[in-house]
Amino acid sequence: MQSSRAWDRWTNTRVAKLVSDETTLNPKEAEMAVYQLEKVMERLLLDGHTVQLGELGSFSLTITSEACRGEKEVTPDKIKKLNLRFRAGKGIKAALENAKFRPAEDMMSKKK
Question: In terms of C-beta density within 10 A (0-12 exposed, 13-18 middle, 19 or more buried), how is residue 31 classed?
C-alpha cells in the first residue's frame, strides 16, 4: 500500500489547471505562471530573501553550521546544510483548524 503522500501528489500541471479554473488564465498560461513563480522564489531565496505568499505563509532559508567563536572564523566552509523553512500564514492555519479527517480506505476508493 502506498503512503497517502505518494498517491495524491499534485504536479505543477495539475495545480495550474486549478489556477486556470479560478482565473482568466488559460491552462498553459497558468502553468507558465506556476513555473515562473518557482523560478522567482528559488532566486529570491538563494539571494537571502524571505518570500511571503499572502496568507499561505512565508518561505526562507536557514543554515546548519559548525559553531564559531568569532566573526573571523565564520566562513562558507563551516556551512554543513541549507534548510528550507516554511512558516504557515493565518490563512492556512485557519484552514488546518477546520480540517476533516476520514479513513484512508475512503480516500483510496475515491482515487480509482
Answer: buried
